[in-house]
Amino acid sequence: MHALLTLPRLVYRAMVWLANSPKTLLLSYSMLIIIGATLYYHFEDDTSFGDAIWWAVVTASTVGYGDISPETWQARVMAGILISVMVLLVIPLITAHFASKLIVDADAFRHEEQEELKNNLRRVRALLEEMAARQEMLTSEGSADPPPASSDPADSRPPRP
Question: Where is this region: Disordered (predicted)?
């Protein structure tokens, strides 16, 4: 079972590595374009390298003008792989990276504010404990019982003997 999960774990780690840096995302995009263009140039006859780069950019961006299209089965398979990788991996990673930069929680507390809140809670806790101790002292010294919770005469407790 461990052997079956090795490849997905490696793919996941690679995607996280790619997604955490705009430089690596641009590098991966550039590498895919260059590799795709080189393979297209190799598979297709009568194609210049400039046309192959143009084809790779147009194909990877899924625009597909149709001015240059693959004729061999190898180039068509490679085009399908290039489109799939771009649409399913690279473009979503780029979008997710920039979206995460746009989402900023303006209500999030800074460290100083969190420390101030903690100190205030400590003071409130100390005051509550002090109030509870005073209340306990008042009721334990033989003072009168606290008044009943309800002012309705039907709910009043009977007097103690």
Answer: 136-161
**Which one has a higher pLDDT value, 77 or 22?**
77
Domains of the chain: total: 2
Same domain, 113 and 83: no
Over residues 36-91, the pLDDT tens digits come to 999 999 999 888 999 999 999 998 887 877 788 888 899 899 889 888 888 888 78
How high is the pLDDT of residue 85? Answer: 86
Pairwise CA distance, residues 47 & 18, whole Å: 32
